Amino acid sequence: MKTTFPHLLLQHAAQRPEAPALREKEYGIWQSWSWKAAATEVRHMACGLLSLGFVKGQNLALISDNRPHVYMGFVAVQSVGGVPIPLYQDAVAAEMTFVIEDADIAFAFAENQEQVDKLLEVRETVPGIHHIIYDDPRGLRNYDQPGLISTAELVALGAAWDRDHPGVWDNMLEQLSPQDVSVILYTSGTTGKPKGVCQTHESFIGAARGAAEVDGLGPSDSIISYLPPAWVGDHLFSLAQWLVAGYTINCPESAATVSIDMREIGPSYYFAPPRVFEGMLTSIQIRMEDAAPFKRRMYEKAMQLARRVGSDMLDGKPVGALDRLKYRLADLAVYGPLRNVMGLSRVRVAYTAGAAIGPELFRFFRSIGINLKQFYGQTETCAYVCLQRDGQVDLNSVGQAAPGIELKLADNGEVLVRGVSVLKEYYKRPDATAEVMDANGYFHTGDAGVIDASGQLRIIDRAKDVGKLGNGAMFAPNYIENKLKFFSFIKEAVCFGHDRAQVCAFINIDFEAVGNWAERQNLPYAGYVDLAGKPKVLELIADCVAQVNADLAREAGMAATQVARFLVLHKELDPDDDELTRTRKVRRGFIADKYRVLVDALYSDKTEQFIETQVKFEDGRSGSVSATLTIIDAKTHPARAAA
To answer: Where are the strands (E) in 413-526, listed by range?
Structure first.
């Protein structure tokens, strides 16, 4: 049997027809689709597209939160030789326009009225969008624009078309090849216009199989699908591994209910970028600060024990009998309830990827008994290059080469990758493809790293971001930023220092965490701008920076990169303002240009700087926010021997 995603779906439907394939929570109730029901719906969705004139080789855009019909839609489009292209659901219409025009989109799937409105707005300038299929009919009753059809109508249309055209869909299915492009995922565009990454059935299935084999994933596992379907990580975990391993995917009711829905489902397999784990830790820290003194002391004692022996317990390393007993008691009283609050009580394997995770954050989750591991890859490699095996987890590395992957380092330290998961090409961009693929078939990742004697890869930073200070010391901004973001009070950080005498930083406070702290201090505030400029808040952040500097002073070669000066920004960095990508990666160059006056002030003898910034609101309106920002000299430390 051919190995493509539609074929894998049919295989599960034949072998386990009544087992749950997908679940969705709606109006507080979980709805299920069996593998047989999912396969039937995919067939009818595909035939519905054919009845509307969809042809082999055509692209179809999907804009939606995590919904069963999105994942079934991917497979329906693939089954007739089409190519699905997911877009970020929180993107504004103007951002979608480039991809829709670049990919010649005539068919689009939209989750609800909000997404339909965006597509109708795009259609005013890109008239090629002829058919818009919407999943949620609420608010769309009086829409009479041409080409609108609901998913329910599409399925009914497809069922009738299938009856009238017997065997046509089956014949199209048999024409599929594992080497066909199965999806085009557009990059986040940190350095320019997004590029469409063409990945085949073979590449994603190869990546999914390798990861499933390492962690023993199978039909008894379940995950919660809550990350953007346009992100390569979700495509690997919620589509490719779903169809390879045959586990159940669960779609939450909304982004606001993810934590509640996680506790109900109790996934056995979990995946999140570092920002999600940062948010979980911040939430825990806020709760503990509000707890009674006895509970707070118990938590602190338990965490001291966890930091000392927790990771060793998880890895099966030798731990003294007394410490084992203490850990089991602490697990009953503290760690277990913590895992339950986060919805991770049944998690067997958890992964983080998408950005570097700070060692302190990584250590915290492993120390309380969560088998958190790192996964490393890019959109161009199906998010699959390295992964960490059980018992071989190094807090400072991203693991060894995954099955089917070859790794090597270029002379400048750039990580090069060859193997099952590497992209076929960039869509309509042979020039860009040639830039990242060398004559030996190695993909140039753009990341700088080192490989140790056991084959563990340690990512230092983006190769383009790694620089040198004026004194010649290596400057890795992302490494410092992750240390800063470990603190619950710091949501985002951007460091500068290349070709400069010292490192300086912008910092975003975490409004919830700092607001909670301010209330306990009886410190009134009138909003984000006011809170971010309070002298006591600046002292709080200065203490966090001083602790990071103390850590850097103890690390070989890092003492020179301590943060010398910093300021707390008057606004949160936001994807809508182009300061972050939709996956919340810092657009460092853009930020440096946009806030040039602040960067210059940091590297002068100024103690404050006025700035007025244009911002975009969620409803599309524009406005401005201004403030006089205080520039603070951070406490630095002489280089010390590592403890």
So the answer is: 414-419, 425-426, 443-451, 457-462, 467-468, 474-475, 490-496, 503-509
Count of CA atoms in the C-beta half-sphere (13 A) of 388: 24
Contact present, 634 and 563 (Cβ < 8 Å): yes
Q: How long is the chain?
A: 643
User: Whose structure tokens read 């982004």?
Assistant: 255
Mean predicted confidence (pLDDT) in 2-14: 95
Across the chain, mean pLDDT equals 92
From CA 523, how far away is CA 516, in angstroms rounded?
10
Structure tokens, 255: 């982004």
Mean pLDDT of 364-381: 93
- As a whole number, mean pLDDT of residues 522-530 equals 93
C-alpha 389: how far from its chain's center? 21
pTM above 0.90, yes or no: no
SS3 632: strand
Under the banding of pLDDT at 50, 70 and 90, the label for residue 643 is very low
2 vs 263, which has greater pLDDT?
263
Half-sphere exposure (Cβ direction) of 209: Cα atoms closer than 13 Å: 15
User: What is the tens place of the pLDDT at every residue in 284-314?
Assistant: 888 888 888 899 999 999 999 999 998 888 8
Going by C-alpha positions, the residue among 397, 430, 436, 399 that lies closest to residue 414 is 436
Bridge-based pairing state of the strands 148-150 and 269-272: unpaired
Rounded to whole angstroms, the Cα distance separating 80 from 39 reads 14
- Characterize 327-348 residue by residue with b for buried, 16 or more Cβ atoms within 10 angstroms of its Cβ, and e for exposed: beebbeebbeebbeebbbbbbe
- What tokens were used for 97? 């326009």
Strand partners, 223: 249
Q: Which of 417, 391, 416, 387 is nearest to 402 (CA)?
A: 387
Query: Amino acid letter at 419?
Result: G
Q: Is the pLDDT confidence value at 611 over 60?
A: yes
Distance, first Cα to last Cα, the chain: 57
- What are the DSSP calls for 192-228, one per residue? SS--EEEEEHHHHHHHHHHHHHHHT--TT-EEE--S-
What is each CA distance from 86 to 120, 306, 460, 486, 588, in whole angstroms?
Answer: 17, 41, 30, 32, 25
Cα separation, 184 vs 197, in Å, equals 5
**What are the structural domains, with CATH classification, of the chain?**
5-268 (3.40.50.12780), 274-462 (3.40.50.12780), 467-633 (3.30.300.30)
Q: Are 183 and 85 spatial neighbours (Cβ–Cβ below 8 Å)? A: yes
- The Cα–Cα gap between 310 and 330 comes to 11
* Closest alpha carbon to 533 in 422, 474, 610, 615: 610
211 contacts 240 by C-beta, under 8 angstroms: no
Pair type for strands 83-87 and 457-462: unpaired
Dist CA 399 CA 386 (whole Å): 5
Asked which of 348-352, 405-409, 551-555 is least confident by mean pLDDT, the reply is 551-555
- Asked if 376 contacts 356 with a C-beta cutoff of 8 angstroms, the reply is no
